[in-house]
Write a structure and sequence with these properties.
The chain is an alpha/beta fold. The chain has eight helices and ten strands. The protein is flat, with a radius of gyration of 30 Å.
Length: 255
């Protein structure tokens, strides 16, 4: 191949490379422009929504918000909550969901609104620390005294509260559990893959089979001020070890 042909081929290759690079840069510019345009459109749509939705008003009424969210339950079940972005949300009052969860645990079935106050008043534990549902006490104590994560000896007193019988060579987990037992809050524990709660839209009491929905979920819980009710998974499908469930539970109880 003579020198002239080599030069022509080299120039052709350079031209092709330049065209390819130029095409890539143009495509990227178009993509950036499209992305910016889409982002601006989304921002404008969000701004329009904020300007027209009662969710972002300073003090919207409960009725207005319920209509916006298509919530049909009775007013007395709900309260207005301000989210991190300033949006107003309608949520079930925590004390109501808490009482429903407790009544369902005691009844071991779906409770009615007419009976939750009576069940709560007649059965709610008086005290602080860790109270264990009667049906779950033997299982909990047997686990605590058998796992290698703990060295202390545990039992449940006549009132249903967990206590330390014997303390020796405490592990860090023992210390965490002892702090929880001696805390000011009340933690109620049950073993069940289901619990009962208020449907946030209809306001009806419904069954929540959380274990069936997610076999790796270790618990479901409800809070009311310093108190908690925790439903620990029955682990029917054995996706988790008992120690994994316990470690997850301790992390929740510590805070």
């Amino acid at each position: 191949m003579d020198k002239k042909k080599k030069i022509i081929i080299l120039i052709s290759i350079i031209v092709i490379i330049v065209l390819v690079i130029g095409g890539i840069l143009i495509a990227k510019t178009w993509d950036n422009n499209d992305n910016n345009q889409n982002e601006n459109t989304a921002n404008n749509e969000m701004d329009d929504f904020k300007n027209t939705s009662v969710m972002y008003e300073e003090e919207p009424s409960l009725d207005e918000l319920k209509e916006e969210y298509k919530i049909t339950g009775p007013d007395e079940l709900y309260e207005v909550q301000t989210e991190y972005d300033g949006r107003k949300a309608v949520v079930v009052k925590p004390e109501i969901d808490y009482k429903v969860a407790f009544a369902g645990m005691i009844k071991n079935d779906i409770p009615s609104f007419s009976e939750i106050d009576t069940i709560y008043e007649e059965n709610y534990p008086q005290g602080s620390g860790v109270w264990i549902d009667e049906d779950a006490r033997e299982t909990f104590v047997n686990y605590l005294n058998d796992t290698k994560l703990l060295n202390n000896e545990y039992s449940v007193n006549d009132s249903g509260f967990l206590q330390v019988n014997k303390s020796e060579n405490e592990t860090n987990m023992d210390k965490d559990l002892e702090n929880i037992i001696n805390s000011d809050g009340l933690n109620i524990l049950s073993i069940s893959g289901i619990c009962y709660m208020v449907d946030p839209v209809t306001g009806e009491i419904v069954r929540n089979p959380f274990e069936d929905l997610d076999g790796s979920q270790t618990y479901e819980y409800f809070e009311n001020e310093n108190d908690r009710i925790i439903f620990v998974t029955e682990n029917v499908d054995k996706e988790l070890t008992q120690d994994e469930i316990f470690e997850s539970l301790i992390e929740l109880l510590k805070y």
